[in-house]
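In response to reviewer comment 3 from the previous cycle, which asked for concrete evidence that the modeling workflow produces usable outputs, we include below a single protein chain processed end to end. The sequence was submitted unchanged, and the resulting C-alpha cells are shown without manual editing.
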Amino acid sequence: MSEEVDQGRRKLLTAVTAMTGAVGVGFAATPFLASWKPSARAKALGAPVELDVSKLEAGAMLQVEWRGKPVWVIRRTPEMLESLKAVVPNLADPGSDGSKQPEYAKNESRAAKPEYLVVLGVCTHLGCAPMSRFAKVDAEMGADWQGGFYCPCHGSKFDLAGRVYKNVPAPTNLEIPPYSFVDDNRILVGVDQARAA
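The workflow returned the following C-alpha cells.
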C-alpha cells in the first residue's frame, strides 16, 4: 500500500517546529546573556557623583561615597594652603612622585583648584579611615603639626594635601580620584578634568 506524502504539509510542520525551537532558544538565552550585564547597583557604584560645594565653608569638609569609598572635599583656607609649604621637610613624598593622582593634581596643593582638595578618605597603609585633624595646635600630633589627617589604627599622618609624613606605616600619599569642575560650585567626582574640558 502506497501512501502519498503531502509535501506542503511536511514543509509547514518543519518550519513551525524550527520556529518554535528558535523561540525557545531565545527565551533560554535571554537570562544567560542578561547575567553578563552589570547590575544597576554595580553601575551606580561606578557612576560619577556630583557635589554642590557652594555652601561648603572655608576650613570645612564634605564627605560622599564613590565606588564604595569615602571621598572627602575640603575647602582650604589661605592659612591651610600656606601650611603646605611648612611641612615639606617632614613629608615622605612631597612632590607626589610615588602616589596615585591625576596629572592635574600633581602639584603642591594636589588639586585642580588649590582651594578644594578632593581625596579618597582611605589610608594607604591598610585601608583604614583617617580622621580629620585640621587644628594646627594639637598636643597629641606633635609640635610640627600643621593640620591634616591622622589614622589612629597604626599612626599614619597626612598633611592638608593628603601627603604622607616620613616614618609612618602608610607607604604613599592619599589617593586623588579623577574629578572635574562642572562650574564654580559643582564638582563631578569620577570624571577626569582633562576629559571634561
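The chain has two domains: 1-37, 44-196. We consider this sufficient to address the reviewer's concern, and the full set will be provided in the supplementary archive.
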